[in-house]
Fold 2,3-bisphosphoglycerate-independent phosphoglycerate mutase.
Amino acid sequence: MKRPPIVLLVLDGWGHRAETEANAVAQGAPYFASLMGEHPHTLLTACGREVGLPRGVMGNSEVGHTNLGAGRVVYQDVTRIDKAIEDGEFAKNPAFLDLIQHVRQNGKRLHLVGLLSTGMVHASDHHLRTLLELAAAKGLKGDDVAIHAITDGRDTGPRSAAGFLETLEDACERHGVGRIATLVGRYFAMDRDKRWERVKKSWDVMVHGAGEVRDSAVAAMKASYESGVGDEFLEPVVIRGQEGLRIEDGDAVLLFNYRADRMRQMTDVFVQDGFDGFDRGDRPSIKIASMTQYRDDFSFPVAFPSTDLVGIFPELISSIGMRQERIAETEKYAHVTYFFSGGREDPYEGESRTLVPSQKVATYDLAPEMSAEGITKAILASLEKGETEVYVVNFANADMVGHTGIFDAVLKAVQKVDECLQRVVAAVKARGGTIAVTADHGNSEQLWDFETNQPHTAHTLNPVPFVLIGPDTKGVKMRERGALCDVAPTLLGLMGVEKDPSMDGVSLILP
């Protein structure tokens, strides 16, 4: 006889904040509020050291889902890289040194491609400046290094890039190496939903020099701001005087983002022989490396390879013959599969996956309901079949619409998730199952920056909720202020499954 279903429902970007002003979660989710009032619940830390990030750094979807699945604090790539810088190992990394040696021996150029950001979600400006320092120490000078900067505005303030670029220019001058060659917003360069027309713009500016020519990087940003366009949506720019710094045959390219999901498509354009997303024109033959492993089938050198996680939640439930299903729309599909499985691409034995296509819109404020309805129908249909015992489901709305900073749209997004949540909870309860509702990080609970007096479009440092609804949860007492790593041990305990010794998370249920 199969067990009643247990559902881990991740409300992406759904943080907790006591103040209700500019808080779409507090204003738009009455059903969720009723769950918090009627069922065992607690708040979880989803940022900083408790999720393997540096102190004070906001969490993100990759980090959140990795910790949720692993049942332990997973030290993130940014932490590993920072440590390598501190102990001197960064400067000895063969992936970096091989590129620099290639450039020096062949009279070619090193191109640094990645997100210019202090947000610490996809890349670190500190890592970029350290790469410039390393290049200078190894004898590269001036325009031996070209920087193709992707502007953020999503994990940072929407008009932050001008200041970041000034800091970068100072670093180039201080080290005597590096020229900012091109700029483009992450909306184009870091798409992950196969909107190849966006990626093409990024490719064309870096490789073919196709972009608006501006006198300087800072001038380009100021002109963009004056036209009402923030960092995320910056159209391709070529810096005047640096037109010759496009990526050419024989050059070396280092992709310095450490988060994988939003660099895979751009990487495909650089390395895939059979690429058919768009016409690349003359594709340069390059020597390439990346900061981390973006995908298992990429065979080029990686500075910081992935570390294997064993004894994680999905592996344990697979090992005892339980069937599991992962459900998400395109925008968060990698998070409930690859990241929740600790960086594993392939499904476990007994694991099925349901991908609901994300809507094809320019920005999600235009469709704040996103694909929540399709996700809800998918889980209800699966519950009706009764073949699956464990579900991991993601609703992306509060995060993806939250990043727009448009309050009315985010409110609609939260309201849609709240409505879907009610239907899913009812269906699980009708089958005697248990549902754990949580989030991977905050976002939609804080949509205005009261210090800068502008929309808040980034993730937050706020805690996230954890609510437990089920037939055996009446009277359950929860620990205060756990972390995301405690969710997996909690669910395993409810199933009567012993956690792996490598899990340092502990159950949120008090004995």
